[in-house]
Specification:
The structure is a homodimer of 428-residue chains. In chain A, 47% of the residues lie in helices and 16% in strands. Chain A has 428 residues and is α/β, with parallel strands linked by helices. The first copy, chain A, folds into three domains: 163 residues, 3-Layer(aba) Sandwich (Rossmann fold); 181 residues, Nitrogenase molybdenum iron protein domain (Rossmann fold, 3-Layer(aba) Sandwich); 32 residues, no CATH class. In chain A, a hairpin with a 2-residue loop joins strand 2 and strand 3. In chain A, helix 2 crosses helix 9 and helix 2 crosses helix 10. Chains A and B meet through helix 6, strand 3, helix 11, strand 13 and helix 16 of A and helix 6, strand 3, helix 11, strand 13 and helix 16 of B. Strand 13 of chain A pairs parallel with strand 14 of chain B. Chains A, B: Its EC number is 1.1.1.23. Chains A, B: It comes from Persephonella hydrogeniphila. Chains A, B: It catalyses: L-histidinol + 2 NAD(+) + H2O = L-histidine + 2 NADH + 3 H(+).
Chain lengths: 428, 428
């Protein structure tokens, strides 16, 4: 972990900041070709391609009728969890659903003389949720991706997951998702985008995955909708001398343990805090830590402590980085809220630790990474609905605006656009 | 234009429908390589690459300081328009802005014991609008793309357009956009996505363009946000025997004149209407029509009249096609509204002709094409804002949920996530 003193410096020009920013700009061309081939095969050969690639990559030979996990397996997985874990997941699902209800968007209709203009909000019909298999399978992924779709009113929600573990299956059961396919990788994305004989195509694909899954999602975008492509995760903590170094250190580590590419960043006005946090991390928390290898690499490469002159500078840097998670642990955290321009989730105050938000508070943990907070939002109900404009004009309304439409059609040289207005005008 | 009688048939399985659907699935691999090279050049060489490609493709050699159109040119273009056209565009801009105000999304904050959970809505900082040059430059494009961004509160809105014509410049002036660059193609998309010395990078790129522009947008997606990739345009008219064949024919033609790939589709219960519409199109409207070549090709390849048993079937087919524009010209058009599942814009009743919606009513004319209405929306204010989750938990709130977070962290094997909770628990 690098400590960089930016006091008195042109802080937005620092080399360390530049490298941090560049971290999310990795090129992945080398896998592009194989992902495209997999997608093409799935599009052309359907189930047969799924069988081949599942055998090749996941080492399982399945018949098409074995893609779907039998409902009893979901039930069994649910019953296999201890009661506390089960209850915790149920609480999480309920709380996340409840928060997302505030995101529900209503249709609207505005009346004007001779017109009704509006917007009809309609949930998507069918959505697919990708859940990674093996080690990286997190029940919270299922909760966070399923809840907004369910609140939006999506009728058919399916899961694709290679070798799904019992947590994935149990959480599917909790969320009321009965259609779970044990397939993964780019081939699962292809199946959801194009459809096969066994798997009906979806309208939107969401959920995290490895580089193959991410590239496949990017490639099928347009055919179907996708959520944003998740890059490596990041946390940025803004703290002053009122912050508890143990708490800050734990929160930084909770990001670093995710992924070698994760970035944990502390920006502080306190030299003392900077020293203590680093000391606690390396001399206490990382000793005998279960995910030491991952966390150490992450901290070595992307862990940074920036010491700055004042909180304004810290916020400025944070806005430049546009972090996925932003914790503000300062004397009056609410005073900073207004100045935050780009962040996936903003955690205010010392008790608002990221893991609470990751699991159980209610807001979504699927957040824009790699500076995408400049232009995208947490996963939400708005990701699972679409809108249709509704236009009704009667003769009265027509008369009020027709001449402007004719004038613009003329300017654009679109004769038939003008004609559509003129033939009606004859009638009046 | 093909007339297909689907009465008594398994209509969703008709070959004609299948071919219509496939029309939007064209592969464009052959341009992928050159677009990627252009983007790479712009990323690496900045302005220099812009100069080279603008010379190569647009035949103009510009210095970097000539990229920006001087403000006086915008003003002059505005003054060059006749008063009626100017006023029509101003009315359009005002009406479109007003409609979009109904889409404004507010931040929300929900209080619970020991917690405040919410969502902060923030406009994007800087957006780029691509406007095609030459023939395909439509002032309405500027209005429809600029208005939602302006209503959303985007501070910096720029336009890139190769050889922008006076309508583009005048409409930029009307919309209050002072930053217009005379560059286009994939190189303009690259400049907006990566930034150059002269052109500051944006957070989102919107607007139509040729295949190079579309591919470039798809390639930079992730770096910056983009609107959906527009495919060829389509109109679907559902009409019964109450519809005026002249009006229906004009509306179909107004789509066909756009583009050889545009699809104009009539679904009707009336054999008589089917015959009359076709007759009027070919024997009256297409005679001496300014855009005859384009329209004829479009109608020949993608123009269809489907005769069906009843309006329910017509709606069913329409939902399958998920058309960009849907006109419903039947006795009680409102009765159909509830059954429409997928359509970009729904025009109800005989006076609600598409050209009015294209130009002046208020709803956006940038609409999902090629079945994308299954999962996407008209361009709107929601495309130019993003949301940040806001989380505040005090000790009381923390105590209410901490055990669930610990339990799930255990299930996921994320030790540091649990630690973040436990170190705080010690304090209580």
């Amino acid at each position: 972990m690098k400590t960089v003193d930016l006091r008195g410096k042109n802080y937005l020009k620092s080399r360390e900041l530049e490298l941090l920013i560049k971290r999310s700009e990795m090129e992945v061309e080398q896998f592009e070709e194989s992902v495209k081939n997999i997608l093409k095969d799935v599009k052309e050969k359907g189930d047969e391609a799924i069988i081949q690639y599942t055998e090749k990559f996941d080492g399982v030979r399945l018949k098409p009728e074995e893609f779907l996990v039998p409902f009893e397996e979901l039930e069994k997985a649910y019953e296999s969890l201890d009661e506390d874990t089960r209850f915790a997941l149920e609480v999480a699902f309920e709380r996340v659903k409840k928060f997302h209800e505030a995101q529900i968007e209503k249709s609207f209709f505005v009346e004007e003389e001779g017109m009704i203009l509006g917007q009809k909000v309609i949930p998507m019909e069918r959505a697919g949720l990708y859940v990674p298999g093996g080690k990286a399978a997190y029940p919270s992924t299922v909760v966070m991706n399923a809840a907004p779709a369910i609140v939006a009113g999506v009728k058919e929600l399916i899961i694709c997951s290679p070798n799904p573990n019992r947590y994935t299956l149990a959480t599917a059961y909790i969320c009321g998702i009965g259609e779970v396919y044990r397939i993964g990788g780019a081939q699962a994305i292809g199946a959801m985008a194009y459809g096969t004989k066994t798997i009906k195509k979806v309208d939107k694909i969401v959920g995290p995955g490895n580089i193959f899954v991410a590239l496949a999602k990017k490639n099928v975008y347009g055919y179907v909708d996708i959520d944003s492509i998740a890059g490596p995760s990041e946390i940025l903590v803004i703290a002053d001398d009122t912050a508890n170094p143990e708490w800050v250190a734990a929160d930084l580590l909770s990001q670093a343990e995710h992924d070698e590419l994760a970035a944990s960043i502390l920006i502080t006005t306190s030299e003392k805090l900077a020293k203590e946090v680093k000391n606690i991390l390396y001399n206490r928390y990382l000793v005998n830590f279960s995910r030491e290898d991952i966390a150490k690499k992450s901290l070595e490469n992307y862990g940074h402590i920036f010491i700055v002159d004042n909180i304004e500078t810290a916020i400025d840097i944070s806005n430049y980085i546009a972090p996925e998670h932003l914790e503000i642990i300062i004397k009056d955290p609410f005073s900073a809220l207004e100045k935050i321009k780009h962040a996936g989730a903003i955690f205010l105050g010392e008790y608002s630790t990221e893991p609470l938000g990751d699991y159980v508070l209610g807001p979504n943990h699927v957040l824009p990474t790699g500076r995408a907070a400049r232009f995208s939002s947490p996963l939400g109900v708005y990701d699972f609905i679409k809108r249709s404009s509704v236009i009704y004009v009667n003769q009265e309304g027509f008369k009020r605006v027709e001449k402007y439409a004719r004038k613009i059609a003329e300017a654009e040289g679109l004769e038939a656009h003008k004609l559509g207005v003129e033939v009606r005008l004859k009638n009046i």
